[in-house]
Structure formats: C-alpha cells, structure tokens
Design brief:
By secondary structure, the chain is α+β, with helices and mostly antiparallel strands. It is built from four helices and nine strands; from the N terminus they run αβαββαββαββββ.
Length: about 180
C-alpha cells in the first residue's frame, strides 16, 4: 500500500509540474516552442536559410525586393532572409492569410538595422511596404500601444516607420493548421 501511495504521489507531482510548465510556457510570449532538434535549449529558434525562407514566401504569394538587387546578409542594401527565425516567416504568412492583403518584404536579416536581442540580424524582424490594405488591417485589428506601434493578440509588434512597417515576430501569430490566425 505504501508503494501505491508513493507511486500515486509521484505521478501527482509529475502532473502538477507538467501543468505548471505548460502554463508558464503560455504566459511568456518570447519563449519558443521546443522541438526534437532543440530539446536541449527550449528557447532556441529554428533558423532558415535564404533559400528556405524565400521558398516558403513564394508558396504563400509573398514578394520581396532589394534596393541593391541582392541577398547578401553582410550588405545593408540587400534584402536577406538568411538566419531568419522560422516563426518570423510563418508570422508573415499568417498575417497575409488573416488579412487577405498582399505583402512585399523590403528588409530581413541583412546588416544595417538596429542592434538588440529582437533584431533583424537575430531573425526576429522584417520590414514590409505600406499599403492601404495592411495599414487598415493592422491599425483596425491590433491594439495601439503608442508611438505608431500596434500589438497583435499573440504579442507581435507592428511599428509604422514612415515608409514601411517594421515588425517584430516573437511567435508565428497563431499559425495552427486549420485555424484562422490573428497575426
């Protein structure tokens, strides 16, 4: 009988610990989802090559342009997606799907943007051109947080910087298969 109680007690502790861990993961928007490949580092983000990212963008009907006509990550006049977070790419695709708007990317992971943890270089940010459709969707759907910034329900931040949107993707914006996402 003592063994049964210990076993039950141990299972109860495991369930409580698992539930608490799941609740914590949901409460912290910047924490990535663990996958088999990053099991040792729960906060790790899957990185894509330029080719992998552009393939996903093309499949979703998302376009991009570069003032230098190039994709070299080390040149500021290029538009590169090398080392972009997979969640960032999926977030852009989610926005396109949810809004029904066309998206033209104008900035990715290339050098020349501001530094910081949640930066272009680190794969969290992209820039895209302004359009009436996107402007109306972002400003009409998301919450204004001041300073020309809007935050989606999932915590992603859309900053209207003069002639483009500078977007920080902490996650994919609710990109669950079969579910209409909200950016």
């Amino acid at each position: 009988m003592t063994t049964t109680r210990r076993s039950w007690s141990g299972r109860r502790r495991a369930v409580v610990a698992a539930t608490a861990g799941a609740a914590l993961a949901l409460a912290v928007p910047a924490v990535g989802y663990a996958t088999q490949s990053d099991a040792g580092d729960v906060g790790a983000k899957a990185k894509l090559s330029h080719s992998q990212a552009t393939s996903k963008f093309e499949a979703a009907g998302i376009t991009w342009s570069s003032s230098g006509g190039c994709s070299d990550r080390n040149k500021p006049n290029c538009t590169s997606f090398d080392q972009i977070n997979s969640e960032t790419v999926d977030g852009v695709i989610t926005l396109k799907s949810a809004s029904g708007c066309g998206i033209r990317l104008t900035g990715g992971t290339e050098t020349g943007h501001a530094d910081g943890t949640y930066s272009h270089w680190n794969g969290y940010k992209v820039d895209f051109g302004l359009s009436d459709c996107l402007n109306n969707y972002i400003q009409g759907t998301f919450t204004s947080i001041g300073g020309s910034k809007w935050q989606s329900g999932s915590g992603n931040v859309y900053y209207k910087e003069g002639n483009h949107w500078d977007v920080t993707y902490h996650n994919c914006g609710g990109c669950v298969a079969g579910q209409k996402a909200t950016g």
